[in-house]
Design a protein that fits this description.
mainly beta; three-stranded antiparallel β-sheet; 13% helix
């Protein structure tokens, strides 16, 4: 009888259970199946940061083609939609495991009123979508020079009184 020690990780089991439950609900609600391989929505991770002149969103969307991305701004909300399609270059029965997520996604974020929605750009490179939103001119920080007042220096020429 061979025995081995396995380290128990309760969180791993919890994550696996959550993934299974999510898949069941997704398939029941949307009926999304692609020739036996379940496709489910996913939420690509996003970083949002602010610079002096911009607010920047960076979304990880590897495998999503540029034509499958849609970015819209409505009522102070930016919405990024897209779809990662399952490419059937290998027969389904040849797969041992499918862990990557396929299907459509949508992420929405509220924009502060400091954003100029007329000045937005988006770049897609190496699977990362970078959306740059310019701040309004009045929202940009202004540096104010501080003058030291009342210090007029008068030179005396050394006259004795």
């Amino acid at each position: 009888m061979s025995s081995f020690i396995t380290r128990w990780d309760p969180f791993r089991e919890l994550v696996q259970l959550q993934d299974r439950v999510n898949r069941v609900f997704q398939e029941a609600n949307t009926g999304q199946r692609e020739e036996g391989i379940a496709t489910s929505s996913f939420a690509p991770p996003v970083d949002i940061y602010e610079t002096e002149h911009n607010i920047v969103l960076k979304l990880e969307v590897p495998g999503v083609e540029q034509k499958d991305l849609d970015i819209r701004i409505e009522n102070s909300t930016i919405t990024v939609r897209g779809e990662r399609k399952f490419e059937q270059e290998v027969k389904e029965e040849n797969f041992h495991r499918v862990e990557r997520r396929y299907g459509s996604f949508q992420r929405s974020f509220s924009l502060p009123n400091t954003v100029n929605t007329e000045n937005v750009s988006a770049d897609y490179e190496n699977g990362v979508l970078k959306v740059t939103l310019a701040k309004r001119a009045e929202a940009k920080p202004k540096q104010i020079k501080v003058n030291v007042g009342g210090q007029n220096t008068i030179e005396s020429k050394g006259q004795a009184a």
